[in-house]
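Quick one: structure tokens for this chain, please?
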Amino acid sequence: MLVKVTAGAVTLEGDLALPDRSRGIVLFAHGSGSSRLSPRNRYVARVLNDGRLATLLVDLLTGEEEAIDERSGRLRFDIGLLAERLLGATDWLTHHPATRQLRVGYFGASTGAAAALVAAAERADVVGAVVSRGGRPDLAGSALARVRAPTLLIVGGDDLTVLELNREAVRQPPGDPQLVVIPGASHLFEEPGALDQVAVLARQWFERHLAQASDPGGRAAA
């Protein structure tokens, strides 16, 4: 279902999927140069939906901003702006009648993962889990140390630069992110079976940390 998400002074377009008796909702933060139409994120979203996890894929930039970014490539690395949009979308979810009782998780890719970590640090009382796919936790800066939500970092074994950045993030106190390396996978997980592994890992992570906080009717547990 196409929805209009109010995020501060702007309105963003999003695709909301609400399986029957949803057990949590996952907000997607797309990577640099991408959008809510990312085929990889949409595939992961379908796998989550099969596990009765609701999803919201949202464009983090307006149409005008996307046009600017196509020319300059600047906004896709504006982590502060992207995190601000995620916070707006999170607040929208907590007020929307169909989603306000669901525990929120973030699934971030590339630069979107950094924005998700920053937003998770700001909404620690709302965000119950974070999954990063080929993410850049280094771009989250000091916010990384303030993330309290259980965090799973998934990186391709052949994505060497990003893999080292994620290994460094795991070593930083006081958080306790979990790192999973998919052998033979590149940054976009285009190799046969690689994205399937990402989707299964994400579903298991969110089921563990979001679904257990909700009752069978999809309402947050007391």
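The longest strand covers residues 10-17.
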